[in-house]
Amino acid sequence: MKNCRVLANIEHVEELISSQEDTPQTHLSQRQIASNLGISQSSVKQILKQDLNLKCFKKKRAQELSLANKQARLRCSRQLLRRFPASLVNFTWFTDEKLFTLKTPNNSQNDRVYAASGIKKKDVEACRLLRTRPTFSQSLMVSVGISALGHTDIHFIEPGVKINGQYYRDVLVMKKLLPDI
Predict the structure, then answer these.
(1) Which residues of the chain have pLDDT under 70?
(2) Is the separation of the CB atoms in 76 and 94 below 8 Å?
(3) Which domain holds residue 152?
């Protein structure tokens, strides 16, 4: 087995993998680089990790903020600063609620049924072949508040409760500001 981690291959891999810095979305994958250079994919991986000291990260989905969004946020922040004097900033609470899905969907590609060879699909019990799911996934809503003075405890909201102004004032704000109640 020959050593593919030679200077020429290292330079080629560096050139092909780092093209994304100049023009995004134009870099080659490790598989494509290996094919172009005629070396194994594991050699490309070793060059990236050991010789070039690069680490691969998976991109995450995020909301894109346009210039208009950023300007609107800046304008609202400045309005808040003008609206409240510095002496009240410590007593300003920001609260938010978040809905968490408790049972996440699974990958159906990994959900297989194995039967002995010679058995036909129609002979397998139907309950083994069906992958059912509820109409609505189970979820949980939590609420928390934060200020310059600190943060509140997490408050779990009962399922089915509609959060309106009255519920927010009576239950969430009172429990956040007066946790001993």
Answers:
(1) 1-2, 18-27, 56-62, 104-116, 131-136, 172-181
(2) no
(3) 67-177
Q: Where are the alpha helices (DSSP H) in 106-163?
A: 126-129
The answer on 87 and 162 residing in a single domain is yes
Q: What's the CA gap between 47 and 62, in Å, rounded?
A: 31
Residues 113 and 170 in one domain: yes
Can you give the pTM of this predicted structure?
0.42
Chain centroid to Cα 163, Å, comes to 26
Tokens of 180: 């001993």
Q: Are residues 47 and 78 in the same domain?
A: no
Confirm whether 58 is domain-assigned.
no
State the total domains in the chain.
2
Token pair, residue 7, equals: 């200077």
DSSP string, 54-114: ---------PPPPHHHHHHHHHHHHHHHHHS-GGGGGG--EEEEEEEESS----GGG----
Residues 35, 73, single domain; the answer is no
In one-letter notation, the amino acid at residue 57 is F
